[in-house]
Each structure stands twice: as C-alpha cells, then as structure tokens.
C-alpha cells in the first residue's frame, strides 16, 4: 500500500518526517510526500475563523498519488457541529487530513512532560495513524490505549499509544 502525504500550506520537514515514520511503523506501507499545496479556496469559514476539514480531504483525495492520501495542515479545522477536529477521514475512503494547529504544545491540558517538539511529534504520528486507520475501515476503539480510540482533547491523544490494539490490528492485517 502507498500512502501519499499531502502538505497543505507550510508544513515543516520534521512534521512530514514524523508522519511518514508513524505510518511506516504501524502499517508497513510505502509513504511518499507530495509537493506543498495551497489552502483550498473557499475552505475558510469567516463566522468560525476556522477551515472546513472536508475541503482538505477532497484536495488530498484528488491530487494524492496513493491508495490512501493524508493532508497535513497547520490550519484550525472543524467538521459539522464540532468545535474543532485534530483530523478527519471517511471510513473506507482514500482521503484524510490532520491539523497540527491544536496538537502544538505541552501546556494545553495534555498529560506529558516531554519537550514541546517531542510532544508535537508524538501527536502527529498518532493522528496520521488514526486517520489512515479510518480509511482502512477501522472505527473508534473502546481501548483508550489503542491509537484508534476517540480523542476529543490532547489529553486523550497523549494517553493512547502509537499502535493498534490486537483487535484493530487483526481487522486490517
């Protein structure tokens, strides 16, 4: 399987590296990194001062070269009535997206005492693995240590591990 990372806006080399490493370690897949793309036109919602996650998925799906494609952006994303999302994917789809906007620091209610850059690296790896898991048909897992557990706040992101639990792993392998 090839997963294409589609940077949308300015994404650091470190974030691209971490996303790639996380995907390869959990899914044993090939990973390519697309050229940087502009923010999708019309994605910004002035009333919310946020961006519509669906439009980033559509862009990643359309231009990505992989069987699975994941957009990565620094923009603050939302979906429907949710205040924000760390990422979004459609079950069994080929596109997904994560945002680093709310994954940035360790002083945000998370439960880690690592340096900020390590915190961001850990969270990026977990979120790309989580969203690609949805594209592979995995739903949210009840095991809070599983990377597929639902994480409405960074606290839950920090608690979960970077790997699939045994049940989720059997579903995709």
Automatic annotation (TrEMBL):
PANTHER family: ARCHAEMETZINCIN, ARCHAEMETZINCIN-2. Zn(2+) 2 binds at residues 141, 146, 165, 168. SUPFAM superfamilies: Metalloproteases ('zincins'), catalytic domain. It is an enzyme of class 3 (hydrolase). Its EC number is 3.4.-.-. It comes from Haloferax chudinovii. Monomer. Keywords: Hydrolase, Metal-binding, Metalloprotease, Protease, Zinc. InterPro entries: MetalloPept_cat_dom_sf, Pept_M54_archaemetzincn, Pept_M54_archaemetzncn_arc/bac. Zn(2+) 1 binds at residues 130, 134, 140. Probable zinc metalloprotease whose natural substrate is unknown. Gene3D superfamilies: Collagenase (Catalytic Domain). Binds 2 Zn(2+) ions per subunit. One is catalytic, whereas the other seems to have a structural role. One of its GO terms (biological process) is proteolysis. NCBIfam families: archmetzin (NF033823). This is Archaemetzincin. Belongs to the peptidase M54 family. The keyword NAD does not apply. Its cofactor is Zn(2+).
